[in-house]
Amino acid sequence: MSGISSRTLALPLLAVDGLGVRFVLRDGLWRRARELRAVERVSFELRAGETLGVVGESGSGKSSMARALLRLIKPSVGRVSWLGQSLADLPPAQLRALRREMQIVFQDPLASLDPRMTVSASVAEPLAIFRPELSRTERLQEVRAMLERVGLAGEILNRYPHEFSGGQCQRIAIARALILKPKLLVCDEPVSALDVSVQAQIVNLLLRLQREMQLSMIFISHNMAIVRHVSQRVLVMYLGRMMELAPREELYTRPRHPYTRALLDSIPIPDPVREQGRRVSPLPGEIPSGLEPPTGCVFRTRCPWAEPRCSSAVPALESVSVNHQVACVRWREIAP
Predict the structure, then answer these.
(1) CA angle 223, 229, 234 (to 5 degrees)
(2) How confident is the model at residue 4 (pLDDT cuts 50, 70, 90)?
(3) pLDDT of residue 2
(4) Percent of the chain whose pLDDT exceeds 70
(5) How far, in Å, CA of 129 to CA of 284, rounded?
(6) How far apart are CA 251 and CA 255, in angstroms?
(7) Judging by DSSP bridges, how do beta strands 216-220 and 51-55 pair with one another?
(8) 3-class SS at 298?
(9) Cα–Cα distances in Å, from 54 out to 50, 228, 244?
(10) For residues 309 and 336, what is the distance between their CA atoms, to the nearest angstrom?
(11) Backbone CA torsion sign across 63, 69, 70, 73
């Protein structure tokens, strides 16, 4: 550990403070521009080796948040820090060099791979960019080793993405993301486009690689059961805002936000008798447009616990316990 200060070791790997992402949309040439607030006031920390699950319906801002963390899109407000260093303060050359430490796996495995590049070329490309000192033979050795690590041994180097199944393409995408041995892997719905049987294989592969490579992960999904399996902490988002942030077991056994409770109620029970007998009230309506969000609490239009005061002010994040935060004025009343 020589050369690494104790202060650096004490810092979170990633710190997010008040992150916001806003897009300006125009419906026509002469129409007034409207602002879409995709992410609003998101704050959390991620420690080395930890997995943070991020859940919420489509339109909750999960993917926009992930891209802003990696500066694939520029945050509108807030601060993202890597080991205490604000990414916004880094000159372009340093930010580019830092990208080898932060990688992402996308939802659609086939769309994330260039159809004109062979498997070997796709996985080797990050090495050519960030490790130009390697010879062609050395790059090929690294590629073979990583492909074997993700379960793709054999003569596949000169084949193209369309020749593989969705699960195999996602393994190739994972190999490409991990070839530089990053510290952080962002998984943006990495299994939602795959068959159920393949989903389990990819999730178990990610967990094994996390242990072996000492990765930190941000795992984005709408599948609450998978998130419980992979995460140590879970962040619940709705219409771009934080609803609840808590350790996994505390959130799944004692949810304090009505939206979290609704998401948990949507998880099917494997026992068909119990599943048929339970009574679940689905959330009414659909998630509102981010162009015209409700005033006050953005969840109030679908919340069974809403009352008049919920429309007057945005609820602040309150501490339920040391590591448990919730944004709801009635959380004490709805504790299970």
Answers:
(1) 70
(2) very low
(3) 42
(4) 92
(5) 49
(6) 5
(7) parallel
(8) coil
(9) 13, 10, 10
(10) 22
(11) positive
Q: Give the residue among 237, 212, 302, 207 at the shortest CA–CA distance from 54.
A: 237
Distances (CA, A) of 286 to 48, 57, 83, 217, 234: 37, 10, 39, 30, 23
> In terms of Cα–Cα distance, which of 246, 250, 201, 244 is closest to 226?
201
To 10 degrees, the CA torsion angle through 38, 61, 325, 285?
Answer: 100
* Residue indicated by tokens 């009352």: 307
pLDDT tens digits for range 101-138: 999 999 988 888 999 999 999 999 999 999 999 999 99
Q: Please check whether residue 2 is in contact with residue 71, taking contact to mean a CB–CB distance below 8 angstroms.
A: no
Taking the alpha carbons of 218, 224, 230, 232 in that order, is the dihedral positive or negative?
A: positive
Torsion over CA: 222, 224, 229, 232 (sign): positive
Pairing of strands 51-55, 233-238: parallel
Q: Kindly give the residue spans of alpha helices, DSSP state H, lying in the chain.
A: 6-10, 62-69, 92-98, 119-130, 136-149, 166-178, 196-213, 224-230, 248-253, 258-265, 272-277
Model confidence, pTM: 0.91
Specify the pairing of strand 184-188 against strand 216-220: parallel
pLDDT 10s digits, 241-269: 999 999 999 999 999 999 999 999 887 76
Lookup: tokens for 82: 């890597």
Digit-coded pLDDT (tens) for 181-237: 999 999 999 998 888 889 999 999 999 999 999 999 999 999 999 999 999 999 999
Q: Supply the DSSP symbol for 49.
A: T
**Within 13 A of 297's CA, how many CA atoms are on the CB side?**
25
Question: Among candidates 192, 60, 170, which has minimal Cα distance to 104?
Answer: 170
